[in-house]
Amino acid sequence: MEHNKAQLIVKAIPGILLMFAIAVFTRGAGDFGFPQWPGVEAYLASNEYWKKYLIDILHLNYILLTIIIGMIIRNIFTVPQWAVTGIKTSSLFIKLGVILLGSMYSVVDVARLGGTGIIIVLSFVIFTVLFTLWLAKRINMDPAAAALLSAGTAICGVSAIIAAAPAVRAKTTDVVYSIATILSFGIVFLFIFPLVGTLVGLSPHQFGVWAGTGILNSGQILAACLAFDPETAAHASVSLKTGQIYNIIRVIFLPFVVLVLAVFSSRSAQTEVDGININTSLWSRFPVFVIGFLAMVFMTSFGLLGQTSPPSPELVFIRKLYNWFFAIGLAGLGMQISFSELRRVGGKPLAVGSAAAVVKAVVALMVVLLFIDEQP
Amino acid sequence: MTIPDMDNNEKKNQHHQITLFATERIEDYVALSLALVLLILVLVLF
Q1: Looking at beta carbons, which residues of chain B come within 8 Å of A317?
Q2: A218-228 and A90-101 helices, crossing angle to 10°
Q3: DSSP letter at A175?
Q4: Cα dihedral value A210, A216, A218, A224, nearest 10
Q5: Fewer CB in 10 Å around end: N or C, chain B?
Q6: How far is B23 from chain A, CA to nearest CA, in Å?
Q7: Cα A345 from chain centre
Q8: Which residue in the set B20, B30, B34 is minimally distant from A85, CB to CB?
Q9: Does ipTM exceed 0.90?
Q10: In whole angstroms, what is the distance from residue A185 CA to residue A193 CA?
C-alpha cells in the first residue's frame, strides 16, 4: 500500500495524540491552563503513605509512570491500529528533547566535568569491551554476536549495536538477541538504580556519574536520572545533567569502538573478508542530532539564550518544552516494549550480556563511591 | 495473565507497520529542523 508524506503525517497524528494524552495524564495539565488536573504524580504525592513508598523510595515519577502506562497498553490491552504510525515517532520526540536539553549545559560545565569524565568513561569503555569479548570467548560464542554485545554494553545500547552490526558482519538474529538483552537489562536497571542510589545515599551528582557510566541505554539513563532527581521548572536535575554529560562523552567513543570491533571481527572471521568501507558505515550511523545538542550547548555558553543562573524566561520555557517532549516520547517507548520479546531472550547472549552489565554496574558504583565527590 | 494470553496480545500488536521516516538519518534531520524552528520561535516571542 503506497502512502505519500502528507497521508503519513495525518496517519501519525492519532498516535501522537495518544502519547500526548498519556503525558498529560501523568504530568498534569497545569502548563496548558488547566490546573484542575495536576497529574498522577501530583496525585500520588498528595497522599503521605504513597508519597513515602512510591515517590520517595521507588521514585515513581511521571517518567516511569508514562513508560509503565505505555507497557500496560502494549502488553495487557493492545496498541490500537490507528495509533501505530504515531507511536513510531516516539524517538523523534526523544531526539528533540535531547537537542533542547543542550540548553542545560554550558562549556564551563562540560570543561569542569570533562577531565574526570573522560578518564572514567574511557576506562569503562575499554574494560567493558575486553571483559565482554573475553567472557564470550570462554563460552564459545560467535565472534560477531560477541562484538555486538560488547558494543551494546560498553557504549549506549541499541544505537551502538546498530552502528556496530554492519562493521562486524552480524546476522539479524545476533542483532535482535543483543538488542533484546540490552533492553531487558536496561529496564531492570531503570528500576534498580534509583532504589540502590537511595539506599547507598548517593548525591544527585554521584548518581548521574553512576547512571551515565553503568546504564546501557540513553533513554534509560534519562529516565533513571529523572526518577532519582526529578526535574521541575524551578529545579534543574543535577543527576540528569551529569548523567547526560557522561553519556555524551561515551557516545563520542562509539566510532573508535566500532573500528576496533570491526578489526577484531575480521580477524576472528572464518570466511574471507570482502572489503567494507568502515568510514562510510560509521558516518552513516552517526547520530547527527547530537550536533544539535552541541549547538545548544554553545548557544547557552555564549549567553544567546539569556542568563543561566537564575535561568532566563527563554531557558525556563525550553526546560518545560523538553520535559514534555521526553514524556511524550517515553510514553511511545513504553508502547514498543513487548513482554514476549523480552521472554524470548535466552541462552548465551543473555548470560554474557547480563554478566557484563552487572559487573559494569557494580564496578561503576565502587568507582563512584571511592573517587567521585558529592558535588561536581 | 497467562503466557498464551500474552502471546495473543502480541499477535494483536502485529499491525502493518508504516514508519514516517524512511531512515534514522532523516529522523535526525527532522528533529534538528524542528528544534531550530522552536528555537527561533522562543527567541522571537520572548
Answers
A1: 42, 46
A2: 60
A3: H
A4: -50
A5: N
A6: 10
A7: 20
A8: B20
A9: no
A10: 11
CB A224 within 8 A of CB A194: yes
pLDDT per residue rounded down to tens, chain B (46 residues): 444 454 555 555 554 556 778 777 888 899 999 999 999 999 998 8
Q: Cα–Cα distance between A297 and B27 in angstroms, integer?
A: 21
Intra-chain end-to-end CA distance of chain A, in Å: 54
Q: Which residues pair with A34 in a beta bridge?
A: A29
CA distance A25 to A327: 10
Residues of chain B neighbouring A88 (CB-CB closer than 8 A):
17-20
| Residue in A84, A65, A69, A15 with CA at minimum distance from that of residue B12 | A84
How close B46 comes to chain A (CA, Å)?
6
If you search the block for the grid coordinates 557522561, which residue do you land on? A246
Q: Chain A: residue nearest B1 by CA?
A: A76
Closest residue to A85, CB basis, from B10, B18, B38: B18
Chain A residues in contact with B15 by the CB 8 A cut-off are: 79, 81, 84
User: In the A/B pair of chains, how many CB contacts fall below 8 A?
Assistant: 93
Quick check: A95 and B17 CB within 8 A? no
**Alpha-carbon span A100 to A110, nearest angstrom:** 16
Residue pair B17/A1 in contact by the 8 Å Cβ criterion: no
Within an 8 Å CB–CB cutoff, is residue A317 touching chain B? yes
Residue A215's nearest CA partner among A246, A174, A257 is A246
Give the residue carrying C-alpha cell 558535588: A375
Asked whether the beta carbons of A189 and A361 are under 8 A apart, the reply is yes
State pTM to two decimals.
0.68
Question: pLDDT, tens digit, for every residue of A132-186?
Answer: 889 888 888 878 888 888 888 887 666 677 667 766 767 666 766 777 777 777 7
Nearest to A238 by CA among A268, A287, A274, A203: A203
For A83, counting Cβ atoms within 10 Å of its Cβ (0-12 exposed, 13-18 middle, 19+ buried), the class is buried
Contact A95 B27 (CB under 8 A): yes
Q: Tell me how many degrees the CA angle A358-A364-A367 measures, rounded to the nearest 5.
A: 145
Give yes or no for a contact between A325 and A100, defined as CB atoms under 8 angstroms apart.
yes
Contacts of A3 in chain B (CB under 8 A): 18
